[in-house]
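pinned: reference chain
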Amino acid sequence: MIDGHESAAAEMQLTAQTTDLHFAPAGAVVRPMERFAEQLEVRLVVEVEFPALTIGRLEAAERRRGAADLEDAAWRARGEAVAWLVGRRLGGGITAELLARLGGAPDDRPLLDTLLMLAPALVQCAAAMSEAWPLAFRANPSVVAMGGLTDSCYMWRRDGALDRARAAEGNRSPWRP
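pinned: its C-alpha cells
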C-alpha cells in the first residue's frame, strides 16, 4: 500500500508498506491463524520536494515475524541501505539505479520491491498538489498546467495506448503536430 499527501508547500510525503505473508501447511478446515507461518513487512516514509522531485528525507524499516513472536517482533531500521537516495530525483533513471545498487542482494529484495513502487505512486499522488498548477502555468508558461508530460508515466508515453486512442478520436496529441 502506498499513499501520499501534501505535507507542506512544495512537498509531498509518501508512505509505503508492503507485506509478504507466508502460510504453513494446515488441514482443510482450520482457524486462519493456524495457517500463519511468517510475515515480512517493509515500511517507507519519504519526503519528496517539488518541483525537482528530489528525496529530502527517507526512513526505511522492515520486520519479520512468525507465530511465536507475532506480538513482540521488532522493526529493524534500514536507513543505511537507503541513505544514498536522499537528494536523488524520484524520476527517470531511478529504477536502473535502484536495481544496480540493491538488485544483487537477495536479502534486500523486499526493500527494493517497495522502493520500485515509489516513482509510479508519486505520479498518482501528485493530484494532491494540482490546485496550484494552473496558477503556476500563468506565471511560467513552461510549466504544464494540466495533464502529463511526455513519457512521464505509462499512460502518457509517446505512441502508447492513450496517445493512439486520442488520435483515433480525432483529438490532437501533445506529441503530434
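why pinned: Strands lie at 2-8, 11-23, 36-49, 54-66, 76-77. The two ends are 39 Å apart (CA to CA).
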